[in-house]
Structure formats: structure tokens, C-alpha cells
Amino acid sequence: RMGPFLDRAFEIPSMQAITVSQFRGTILDLLGTARALMLLGTAVAVIIAALGVFNSVLVSVTERRQELGIYKVLGASPSQVFAVVSAETALIGLIGGLAGAALAAGGGALSDGFVTRLFPYAPTPASGHLISIDAAHAAVGMAGALAVSLLAGLIPAWRASMLPAVRSLRGGRA
Q1: Which of 35, 75, 114, 156 could make an SS bond with 58 (beta carbons 3.0 to 4.6 A apart)?
Q2: HSE of 28 in the Cβ direction (CA atoms, 13 Å)?
Q3: pLDDT value at residue 22
Q4: Which residue has the higher pLDDT, 170 or 49?
């Protein structure tokens, strides 16, 4: 019975029969490409965030050179100045990590709703959500944001710790 049907099916222009394993392979290839694009987008976002933190902290150090000079005149050591600037940088990273986790959770919920409306019969995991952000993933993201911000703040913190106190008070360049 299937023989005549298959013969006619292969005669139809632009129709192609594939096996389930071929279809599965195509879907897995698409998912791999999507994952690679997501990783690339994440890498670009991390680089942009690091450059933003670096620029912000460097400008802050440059604008506050007189204040940092006063710290040094009052007896602050270079390591204490370094610690102050690093703590400020860490705070920027933590705030960015919290904002990123909140945006990821909100965006995940929105895209989950969109996908389930678009594909109502798509299989869902046991949690009932296609996209979910748990506390462990949020903590890893915030730790990553903290690490990136601290790395980006190393050079500005070092520059702040090496400022000559008297020259800073006179308004000399950092």
C-alpha cells in the first residue's frame, strides 16, 4: 500500500521525505547554533560591561584625585586607597549583577509565556517552565558580575593608590 504513495510523494516538486533521526539531527544543529550565538552575545555583553566599569571607575578616580590626596595626607596607605576604590568597584558589580538577575528572570518569564503561546503543545520540563532561573544560576551570574567588575577596576584602583598626595592636592593630573 505505501509503495505507490511513496512513489508519488517523491515525484512532487520541492517535497522531500526525511527520517526522524535526520529531523532530530537538524533540530540539534539548530540548537547548537543558537547556543553558540547566545554565548557570543554573552561574551560581547561581558566585554562591554567590563569596559563600562573600567571607564566609570577611571573617570571617578580622575575626578576625585583631590579627595584621594586628602586621604593620603591624612595617613591612608596606598593599599587602603586601593581597597576603597576596589570596594566601590565591587558595589558597582553587585548592583549590576542584581539588575542582570532581575532582568534575566523577567525576560525568561516573558519569553516562556511567548513560546508556550506560540507552541502550545511543546513539551515542558517537570517544573512547567521552558525557561527558569533558579537561585544557583542567579548566584553564579552575580559572582561573575562581581569578578568582572573587580578585574575591570584593578588598573583604576592601582592608579588611585599611586597618586602622589601633594600633587593631587594641587590639582595635578592623575
Answers
A1: 156
A2: 6
A3: 84
A4: 49
Torsion of CA 21, 27, 28, 32, to 10 degrees: 160
Closest CA to 144 of 97, 100, 108: 97
- SS (HEC) of the chain: CHHHHHHHHHHCCCCCCCCHHHHHHHHHHHHHHHHHHHHHHHHHHHHHHHHHHHHHHHHHHHHCHHHHHHHHHCCCCHHHHHHHHHHHHHHHHHHHHHHHHHHHHHHHHHHHHHHHHHCCCCCCCCCCCCCCCCHHHHHHHHHHHHHHHHHHCHHHHHHHHCCCHHHHHHCCCC
Mean pLDDT of the 5-29 span: 77
Average pLDDT over residues 93-104: 92
**Contact of 156 with 56, CB cutoff 8 Å:** no
